Amino acid sequence: MARTTSPPEPETATGGPAAAPGDPGTPLARRADAAGLGRALAGGFVLPGLVLIVLFLVVPALWTIYLGVTNYRLTGLAAADPQLVGLDNYTAALGDERFRTSLWLTLQFVFGSAVLGQAGLGFAIAWSLRDRHGPVRRLVEALVLLAWILPSSVVAFLWIALLDRDAGTLNALLGTPGMAWLLDHPMLAVILFNTWRGTAFSMMLYGAALQNVPPSHLETARLAGASTWQQLRDVVFPRIRGHVLTNLLLISLWTFNDFTPFLITAGGPEQRSEILPVYVFKIALSGGELGFGAAISFLMLLINLVIALVYLRTLGQRREARR
Amino acid sequence: MAAITLHRLGKVYPGGVRALDALDLAIADGEFFALLGPSGCGKTTLLRTIAGLEVATEGTVRIGDRDVTDLQPGRRDVAMVFQDYALFPHMTVEENIGYPLRIKKVPRAARHDKATETAAELGLTGLLDRRPGQLSGGQQQRVALARAMACHPQVFLLDEPLSNLDARLRLEARTFLKRLQRELGVTCVFVTHDQAEALALADRIAVLESGRIRQVGTPVEVFRQPANTFVAGFIGSTPMNLLDAEVAGDAVLVAGARLPLPAPVRALVADGDRVVYGVRPEYLDLHPAPVPGALAGRVVVVENLGSSSLVSLDLPGPDGAAGAGLQVVVPEGREPAIGSTGWAVPRDGRSLVYRNGELLHATEPAGATTDPAHAVGPAADSSVTDSPVTDSPVTDSPVTDSSVTGSSVTDSPVGGSVPAGGAVAGSAAGSGAAGGPA
């Protein structure tokens, strides 16, 4: 799909199909239209991709925005004849205690499991394995990767089995029978779960990034007497800042939209682990309030955009500073 | 400022590769010391073990009067300049130079003063606010040197200091480095695979091969008196000629020729001993006519070296087959024609005899008998002065084999006027030789 975005670039500079193959007098035009297809033909190649994008991305997005300003419901009278309600859904959401709690929980979830958990743990593993080869490294990598590639339903079952009150593995290990982890600490449980689940990506990304740090730079710092922390601060992080930002951008967005915690706690107990994706699911599909759910979805989209913009701006500033 | 003493130093990498093998080495205070050897000989490992970046598996390293074998690199009071300079790209030149001071918690103002002062010594004033990416290779190297100097270490370690510079800058940097080391008077160890660099820079050189030191000595010693055939083959811009020989009385038989046995070794060998006769291409004089005590061979290749040419001769083998090759450096304007026969005479006191790969030398070194004019170094030896050459120029004569044996060197002009009998080889020789003097 991503490929469909690049072909329009060359055809913009061409003067049309006529200028492309036969006209040797305009080297600029020939360079701009490297494939020599001409505008119509190139457009023809792009068209199927564009149609698919419009059908499956643009239309549903617009449809969601439309639904967000109606009182559309899954069942009942409003399902047959939805009415426009303006921004009522948005004001209701923003004024709703449950939405604000959910947003707060989501931020905790993102910061705790993505930024601290996955990125932190992933970097720590990558850093400690950087000079290692052989069975230890392969074993750690295999275990971390395994958590990433297992199906969500399987890992959800594993975690419930681990944390279960009556027959849970953790209680058996710790000798604390009857400890209801999922009821007493639901947010902590899903944060730990998501850290465990997603660390592999960060580990691999940082593992690759650390290869970019020249050993001689680290050794120069060591010869100057720098501690491990000083080496990280002065040599490693300045080198891999771009990787860190890209990694944080991706895992923040993924975690923000992650629905898997629902499989473990179902948002409970008493909505204490009800992050936004779970909240939307409950409102729109369990509760049937499609219009309200669409409004919240749109709010989530906006928050995602803000997160992405912040990271991209930081990344851009870094590039500016380098010049 | 401190001496470095290595005692039975060994390094075995996990997996069993032995990089250093029970090395003993003493580097004096204030010495400019070179570790020289082919790639994989352990020279870089040795340097890194002195720095503390590699941990010795046996033996001790002492810097000054401290045993530093188990100390972290940061506590050894050494500074190292890496081959790639390892400048931090996100820091300015000033920050780079001041970095070791920053780690040592020197206040900002003092750091700034020190960086400015060091930069001025190395001619980096005005570049302090630049980033390494905006500097030339030579400037980057000086920044790396300044960073090493800024905290006044006891020992400087340089890993291939000149290899990242282009040929012209390399000469400049070489002179600069040597002067800087003299001025600072700091003990300095550098690693190089380039024997010319080691000869030019170092006070003393250690030649390494597979984790062992094969010879330690001043450049003159290492060049004049290579202790074994490995060093002999490694040192010198053109490798030494090493020819199988047999002792016969007070002479050696080499490739059918009878050459005088160097005086100091006469007492050390017996008749019939199998030895290796070594002589540098620079210490051979090529004659176009037969002379006594010369190695005769057919000229096969002439390589122009600028002010001189390197001539390769094929010596006759024992049973008429092609034997060993011999290389001779001839001064400008005396290149022989390809295909002709040349007679190479070793200069007095410059040939060496090896038995079982080791140099045979008496208590009085053979090199000591040579005239003082050559004491400066190997470069002076390519001079034409003391070579007894015949008057007639050998060079621009497109001659065939038969005409040379008659020892008459024709003055026929070069170019298209090759004698009728001149085959392809003859004309090729003519045009090849013409390249030099013309």
TrEMBL record, chain A:
Protein name as catalogued: Amino acid ABC transporter permease
Bilayer-crossing regions: 40-66, 103-127, 139-162, 174-196, 244-264, 290-312
Q: Which PROSITE patterns match?
A: ABC_TM1
Q: Quick one: where's region Disordered?
A: 1-27
Statement: the UniProt record of this protein carries the keyword Cell membrane: yes
Domain ABC transmembrane type-1: where?
99-311
Family membership noted in the UniProt record: Belongs to the binding-protein-dependent transport system permease family.
Source species, domain of life: Bacteria
> What UniProt keywords apply to this chain's record, in alphabetical order?
Cell membrane, Membrane, Transmembrane, Transmembrane helix, Transport
Note the InterPro entries from the entry. Answer: MetI-like, MetI-like_sf
Question: Principal localization?
Answer: membrane
Task: Please name the taxonomic classification of the source.
Answer: Bacteria, Bacillati, Actinomycetota, Actinomycetes, Micromonosporales
What CDD domains does UniProt report for this protein, alphabetically? Answer: TM_PBP2
Membrane topology per the record? Multi-pass membrane protein
Has the keyword Transmembrane helix been applied to this entry?
Answer: yes
The record's subcellular locations are: Cell membrane
UniProtKB/TrEMBL annotation, chain B:
Q: Which residues form the ABC transporter domain?
A: 4-235
Give the matching InterPro entries. Answer: AAA+_ATPase, ABC_transporter-like_ATP-bd, ABC_transporter-like_CS, ABC_transpr_MalK/UgpC-like, Mo/tungstate-bd_C_term_dom, NA-bd_OB-fold, OB_MalK-like, P-loop_NTPase
Q: Where is this region: Disordered?
A: 365-438
Q: Which residues form a coiled coil?
A: none
| Entry keyword annotation includes Thylakoid | no
Q: Which UniProt keywords apply?
A: ATP-binding, Cell membrane, Membrane, Nucleotide-binding, Translocase, Transport
Compositional bias, Low complexity, is annotated for 381-431
- Pfam families according to UniProt: ABC_tran (PF00005), OB_MalK (PF17912)
Give the stretches traversing the membrane.
none
Q: Origin, by domain of life?
A: Bacteria
Query: What is this protein called in UniProt?
Result: Sugar ABC transporter ATP-binding protein
Origin organism is Plantactinospora endophytica
Q: Which SUPFAM superfamilies match?
A: MOP-like, P-loop containing nucleoside triphosphate hydrolases
Q: Which GO terms describe its molecular function?
A: ATP binding
